[in-house]
Amino acid sequence: MRTLGSSPMVIAVVSGKGGAGKTSFAASMALCSPPDLPVTAIDCDVEEPNLALLVQEDNHQGAPGMDSTPVTLPIPMVDPERCSRCGICSRTCRFGGVLCFGRSLPTFNELCHGCGACVMACPNGALSETPRPIGVLNRGVIRHRRGVILEGRLLVGMPNPVPVIDRAVEVGLAEGTGSAVVIDAPPGAACPTVAALRQAQGAILITENTPFGRADGEVVAQLLKDMGKPTGLVLNRSGILEEEPPLEGILGSLPLIARLPFSRKVAEGSAQGIPPSELDEHWREAAVSAWEWARRVLS
């Protein structure tokens, strides 16, 4: 197992859709890590972050609350006296974030990725950059003082979660308190999920063995394969079908870490902010098994 002082072990917990149990399993892993392995948990589901609800230390017990720092994006601003209205900045932008109409000054919309290409391309030096808030990064303490929880949160109305995810992962990897990082990735297989997975050395894919669960899980499993991420599989709500079909295809090729039976107690506890690992021994054992798999495969 990687130790303090070396690069951290980075594990992402992923799912093909929302509601599969991804955040619940990420919380269970954060709370069931080996005693000698402090953990930094990162909630990269920045459009709907809720990992802190399950793992953050209870403030009523005298623990500090979460500290917030802004996440900003460098947005261009134009000097009208230098701008020649040539339109080069608009033609340079790959994302449609710069608009030029006739001889009017360029305008910058929310599609801007903050890449700085337009600033570099401007022949007159008419463009500079100013920070625009797009999200916040919250930092707290995991229950039982087992490590740190970092929560990325995209501001309402902001269209691009990737810069907030990148910042959350960057800060999480730089944290000196842990020798392991657990990333609660966004669901699905789109750009936010890819951003959360970039720095991960391996992944835990949690899904349900239902037609929809398998279909969505296969898409994410293929993404993980294409990215070269070793992946273990956890089946949640196992047994809810009268006859559970065998796993086939790419899901069937993954090592099965655990099957988690449906638990009403877990569902009710989650609604109250109680992590599953504190209510159900199946979740505790599955989290421990996930760490054992990570020890074998990623160390």
From TrEMBL:
> Matching Pfam families, A to Z?
CbiA, Fer4
Give UniProt keywords alphabetically. Answer: Iron, Iron-sulfur, Metal-binding
Q: Which InterPro entries match?
A: 4Fe4S_Fe-S-bd, 4Fe4S_Fe_S_CS, CobQ/CobB/MinD/ParA_Nub-bd_dom, P-loop_NTPase
Gene Ontology MF term list: iron-sulfur cluster binding; metal ion binding
Note the PROSITE patterns from the entry: 4FE4S_FER_1, 4FE4S_FER_2
Report the residue ranges that make up the 4Fe-4S ferredoxin-type domain in this protein: 74-103, 104-132
PANTHER family (UniProt xref): 4FE-4S CLUSTER CONTAINING PARA FAMILY ATPASE PROTEIN (PTHR43063:SF1)
User: What is the name attached to this protein's record?
Assistant: p-loop ATPase, MinD superfamily
